[in-house]
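Appendix B. Worked example

We walk through a single record from start to finish. Start with the input: the chain for Sodium-dependent transporter, Streptomyces chisholmiae, length 519.
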Amino acid sequence: MTEQPQREQWGSRLGFLMAAIGSAIGLGNIWRFPAVTYEHGGGAFLIPYLAALLTAGIPLLILEYTIGRKYRSSPPGALRKLARPAEAIGWWQVAICFVVATYYAAILAWALRYVGFSFDQAWGDDPEGFLNQEFLQLNETPGEISTFVPGVAWPLLLIWVLTLGVLLLGIRRGIERANIVTIPLLVGFFLVLVARALTLDGAALGLDALFTPDWGALADGSVWVAAYGQIFFSLSVGFGIMITYASYLHRKSDLSGSAMVAAFANSSFEILAGVAVFATLGFMAQAAGVGVADVSSSGVGLAFVAFPQIISEMPMGAFFGVLFFLSLAIAGFTSLISIVQVIIAAVQDRTGLGRTGAVLGVGGAVTVVSLLLFANDSGLYLLDVADHFINQYGIALAGLVLLITVSWGLRKLPALQRNADATSSIGLGVWWRICLGVLTPVVLTWMMVDSLRHELDENYEGYSTTFLLWGGWGVAGGALLAGLLLTLLSRRRPAGRETTVDSAHSVDHSVDHSVERND
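Next comes the structure step. The output line below is what the pipeline stores for this chain.
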């Protein structure tokens, strides 16, 4: 039997919470939540949103925290200790994180460049043309790669250097310290953005459009599904991040209280982002003499087309632009760190490599793939398709399979509930098991069916079938196949390492049973 190195731990509960909040707060909070709210009933949408938070978001967070802390391993190792076949789900999540990391970093590289572009409004009178033609040098044919784009490559490389630099320092000195600095800074930047946006002419017009409730929307099932979808994608659940982060917790850490703090902090930031975005869109609508519906957008179009146009027209536009794109970069940076840490933790747990070797090995591979796929003239198309399919048929589907496996197949929810209750300030009732065992799987299944129906009705964004097959379905299916392959490779471990893992497993169980008896 070989002696395993002691697992790293967070320095404090605050450090863990900041890291969890930093992972949850990302690009989707800024450019997805406001648009989803506006399109699904405005102020009325906050009712299904809150219901989804309480019945899916927080219960899922607690579940992943419990699995991570109890088994003290990355997703493959933790799920293997639940049941050997479940290891495949963990490796699937690792593969998903690899895919997401490659394109997520590209968006941060764009945001970094746009910080510089904001000083002199380099996009001129045509932000869309500047983005597509001058900056990204977009190919007319989606999926056809013909040109390397240095203007994207060097900031992308810089993003990876910064990310891997933080990860090399470890959990406490790297990730924890980085989030303790960046999260307050991000909130401070956004408070300044909100204050500036609220003073713009037309701000009230934008806020009315965002928050005026359409109570009739509550009778539409798609509105409730959208609320659950927003919560699911916003909280970083379903692809192993929170299992990984919780594996570095102390054994007596409060799980339910931490989950509620992280979830409500994330939702508060989403509402703050909604105010900033729609107050600014209201200014744009009034200046153009059109309705807010005519200028509202989401995703890349909001951040890199609509906002540059607003920045060019508003007083102190350069200041507003620098703050906005810095905030976008910081929000994405803390999320990227958490995504890559999942892969690093899995490699460390499987191979016994030290942090330096694992970071450089994982970081080198993901950086090369990221540069090859997204620093070219088809990068935006690849990013758009990969993001859509890996979210719908990767993250959400992996989360659904995990829930069904844990709740229905293994029937582990009661045992996990006892483990969480033993050290948590807020006890979990039968509602927790009902939410995870019935409600959330039903909603996620409906999301899958509804999304698949739309895919079959028409090609996503009008892209060619060939491009969608390899750039979309191929990416999502490739992540699943990679997870299965990694599972097979992982099981071909030396006998000594197998004994060590099984021995650690028995120790974990003895500790857990002791906690449950004391409870």
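Two observations about the output. The chain has one domain: 13-510. Residues 494-519 have pLDDT under 50 and may be disordered.
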